[in-house]
Amino acid sequence: MWKEENTESNVYWTSKGYVMSIEVKKITETLWEVPKKGDMLVPGRIYGDGKTIERLLKEVAERKGGGFTPALQQVVNVATLPGIQKASIAMADIHPGYGFTIGGVGAFDMEEGIISVAGVGFDINCGVRVLRTPFERPEIEKKKEEVATRLFRDVPSGVGSTGDIRLSLDEINEILRRGAEYVIGMGYGLPEDTEYIEENGRIEDADPNNVSLRAKERQFKQVGTLGSGNHYLEIQWVEKVYDPESAAAYGIHETQILVAIHCGSRALGHQIGTDYLKTLEAASRKYNIPIRERELVCAPINSPEGRQYFTAVNCGINCAFANRQAITHLVRKTFGSVFGTSISDIEILYDVGHNTCKVETHDIGTEKRRLLVHRKGATRAFGPGRMEVPERYREFGQPLLVGGTMGTSSYILRGTAKGMEECFGSAVHGAGRALSRKAAKHRWRGEQVMKELREEGIIIKSRSKPGIAEEAPEAYKDVDNVVDIMDRSGVNKKVARVRPLVCIKG
Questions:
Q1: Given a cut of 70, is residue 3 above it in pLDDT?
Q2: Contact 68, 57 (CB under 8 A)
Q3: CB-based contacts of 146: which residues, under 8 Å, 6+ apart?
Q4: How many CB atoms lie within 10 A of CB 441?
Q5: With contact defined as beta carbons under 8 Å apart, do 122 and 99 qualify?
Q6: What is the reported pTM?
Q7: For residue 212, what are the contacts with CB-CB under 8 A and spacing of at least 6?
Q8: Separation of alpha carbons 474 and 63, rounded Å
Q9: How far apart are CA 197 and CA 96, in angstroms?
Q10: Measured between alpha carbons, how far is 278 from 504 in angstroms, rounded to an integer?
Q11: Which of the residues 92, 265, 352, 384 could staple to 485 if both were Cys, CB 3.0 to 4.6 A apart?
């Protein structure tokens, strides 16, 4: 199955995979490497501990066909793609995805590299926004039931959910071009909100002409909606601060109430991915790009197909920013009706996506290079001094918003200089699944999960009991361990741990 072999200074783990033998070399206690082999252009690098690597290799060894390609094999597969730089990287929340592992990072040279649907995912710019409130935990506890009921009523959630915002085709096109900026102009927020959104809530080079009418039609009524699956709206309290200076810069302190919004581009993003799988599959053949797995189909960045997909992805990114902005407005209104707060009392701490590909400047050797960085279930995590980080936070690095589960904890981390050097300024995005959705539904009942969490003081509101079973806390890896790995690596650093009081699910 797998074996551990001690050498003078390193530990090697090996497994006979269904494609090739995979060897994993221990670099540090938290960083492991799959050496460059065969048609790999770069090594694979995984952040994890010994148990992480043992699980990944066991997954490869036991592959019997069907289902996802094992995550470790996906790291290897990505390392074969043209133009990849430094390494095929996976964060500590690594688990199998479509083509790229979830938690995967791949940076590609702008001239020789490719763009891939798998490196972005189908929920384009799925991400997390955290709001600061002026409240402490005891104040919310008094009205927890009421605010939970109101949020569940006011923020549409669930499969195919629609909201009160009805848009024309022209308005959808403007959202795809202008993102959060456009819906703020419609009255859904404050001009200063954009300072604390990645890309200021609007990424350039977005062309709605490269998004299908079908994708746009699916979004007419979905702006300002939460969706389903692992998406959530959560009232949280700050349980522990690890880094007082960074926490002070971020405006957070122990016992403070925060609100987290986790969602993406809804049906529009999924349709973009579906549409361009076919386009990039043809492009892979056209440009003679060898593909190890169907979902890794891709096109040269500067090819017509690559440019079309890139500008469509940017539309999806803007759509997700607009969606989280509209939900922020609904949250502010709900808090105002329950607690009498004004719109400006609820501030954006930060908003960052974790299913993106973006052009960024990074150090490669002694030179600065423009690269297309794919982050699939991985968060941008820029370190101190980067101009992309809001001025208020720049000395300490970008806030990272890491989701746990509705029954455990989530985290606020920060980017570091080491993270910029090792992994293109990237971070974990969550705990990472330990069980498939199907396996979770077999093991738990939604009603029982909700009952047990209520006994712990956590109110869950959902339109789907099976969906709650899929999202049972035990279906995920230990977020504390995942975050500890990244913190010990020095790539991401802990600022605060938060725990849920109310969780709204689809």
A1: no
A2: no
A3: 338
A4: 19
A5: no
A6: 0.93
A7: 271, 272, 275
A8: 23
A9: 29
A10: 35
A11: 92
**Rounded Cα–Cα distance for residues 335 and 343 (Å):** 9
pLDDT tens for each residue of 327-368: 999 999 999 999 999 999 999 999 999 999 999 999 999 999
CATH class of 127-434+476-505: alpha beta
Return the residue matching tokens 């690269």. 371
- Dist CA 394 CA 79 (whole Å): 32
pLDDT in tens, 154-188: 997 655 566 667 788 999 999 999 999 999 999 99
DSSP three-state, residue 278: helix
* One-character DSSP codes across 34-46: E---TT-SS-EEE
Round to whole Å and give the CA distance between 440 and 456. Answer: 21
Nearest to 105 by CA among 327, 410, 428, 434: 428
Which of 262, 270, 429, 442 is catalytic? The answer is: 429
| Separation of alpha carbons 198 and 216, rounded Å | 23
Q: How far are the Cα atoms of 109, 120, 181, 276 from residue 355, in angstroms, in the given order?
A: 19, 5, 20, 16
The residues near 278 (Cβ < 8 Å, ≥ 6 apart) are: none
- The letter for the amino acid at 274 is T
Of 255, 157, 146, 128, nearest to 502 (Cα)? 146
Contact 337, 318 (CB under 8 A): no
Per DSSP, the three-state class of 323 is helix
What number of other Cβ atoms are within 10 A of residue 329's Cβ? 21
User: At 208, phi and psi to the nearest 5?
Assistant: -60, -20
Structure tokens given for 93: 């929340």
> Tokens 């759509």 belong to which residue?
319
- Residue-averaged pLDDT of the chain: 92
Domain ranges of the chain: 2-108, 127-434+476-505
As a three-state string, the secondary structure of 356-387 is EEEEEEEEECCEEEEEEEEEECCEECCCCCCC
